[in-house]
Amino acid sequence: MGNASAAGHVIGATSYLNLPVSDVPATREFWTKTGVRISEDYSDENAISLSFSDHVVVMLLARDFFSSFLDGRAVADSHLAAGAIEVPAPDPHPGQEMLDACLMYGRTFRDLDGHQWEIPWMSSEMPSG
User: Fold this and answer.
1) Any idea what DSSP says for residue 4?
2) Least confident of 15-29, 42-56, 85-99, 110-124
3) Cystine design at 46: which of 15, 22, 65, 90 (Cβ 3.0–4.6 Å)?
4) Is the pTM of this model over 0.85?
5) Cα–Cα–Cα angle for 15, 42, 33, nearest 5°?
6) What is the mean pLDDT of residues 111-126?
């Protein structure tokens, strides 16, 4: 059935995530240092477009610009919202056998605005089962 929703509509092949940021220039510097590709065609003084792959794009939008899409609702403060959610400490040995076999790895970090990122990589040669 491919990429179809329950209603039978085709689901797009690319996922976009929009997040608010407090300081676009500082955020650009942060992400430039991580090595994530910034798509300049979709970036300006109000937005930074991060291309994690051909199918995953994250738009980091200045808070005022982000709020223009919210129909008058307030933008949540990610530092306060994150404090309301208990985030367990990272497992020091997640899937250790997978790590040892070089089949996966990943890192968790928080950006300048308190957004928590968990970026994994998994081999296309994963064992079945």
Assistant:
1) B
2) 85-99
3) 65
4) no
5) 85
6) 79
